[in-house]
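Hi everyone, sorry if this is the wrong subforum. Our group has a chain we'd like a structural model of before ordering constructs, and none of us has done structure prediction before. Sequence below.
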Amino acid sequence: MPLQTLIDKEGDLAFIRFEEEAILRLEQVDRSVIPPGGSVIYSEKAMTHLKTISKIFFPLHSETLPKGFPTQEKGA
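Answer:
Right subforum, don't worry. Here is the predicted structure as tokens:
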């Protein structure tokens, strides 16, 4: 089923639930890129799980960040 059909038929909340369930099925990952899309941030469970099994990287251009915003983890 195309993604838009799922959203049209079941609604945004159903899509977010579906996305959350898919992420929660992921196991420890190594040397992988997981591009979950922007809506994953609406699921605290999914974000916590991703933080547990991987490093989270948000590629942002420095000019979009507020002045003085930290751009690296401490100790990195």
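For your construct planning: The chain has a mean pLDDT of 79. The chain has one domain: 3-56.
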